[in-house]
Design brief:
290 residues, single chain, two-stranded antiparallel sheet, mainly alpha, 4 strands, 6 helices, 3% strand
Amino acid sequence: MFDKPKSAILAFIWASSKTFSGFRCSHQEGERTSPVNQDTVLMTTATDDPVQPRLSYQHLLVQASRCLHTSSQSLAPVPPLPEKPGKVRHGLIPEEFFQLLYPKTGVTGPYMLGTGLAIYMLSKEIYIINSSTLVALTVGSFFIYGVKKFGPSIAEFADKLNEEKVAKVQEVKDLAVAGLAQAIDSEKKEQWRVEGRSLLFDAKRNNVATLLETNHRERLHMVTNEVKKRLDYQIALQNLHHQMEQEHMVNWVEKSVISSITPQQEKESIAKCITDLKALARNTQAKATA
């Protein structure tokens, strides 16, 4: 059953959400505009007429405008998502709410606030206990039982799937990191080769200079050998001239001496030689017998 207090609560929630939405839009766009002018609201409230049918949730239609982010994409690194959610109490109330009220109200303040608010809503008939409340309690009980009963196994299964996905992503990341590391090593090696290229060019220049020097010295040696051969030829030619002149002179002198000797002188010379030979033979024989 949907009555006036409940419609008032819905209207209050709608107005609060629209006010927050309008403020957020105006803050992002740099101008403050009224949220009522931006939205089209079609809502029918209940009256005191008993003939008018009761409203249900389907009769409430709220068309709320949403602001789109038109700013440029930020290139800043995105912070990692937390692996575990924040702490809550009683499965619904965040821990920050209790920590916020502790300095002002003490430990029992949040509980007293919740209890007082519930008693106030019940006493003022802002919230009326009806069949929907029993259905909500039943559904909530089944939900809590399902969470307590099957929650750990489902969480374990989900964690297992998550770990498998993380392992696959980590494997891809490791492969990518290994490939990038190999690429970095290759780049460093190429840079080292480029740095050593100057040394290689210097060595090649030295080799070329050595080859040129060797070729120059070989040519000098060849020229020296050719000059020496020509000088040796000239010396040999001069020696040959001197030798031929000497032989010619000896032959001429010998011929002249032979032609100047008479036959009588030749006979006397032969006889003298024979006599000398005989004397030499006697002396040699005497020395041998002595």
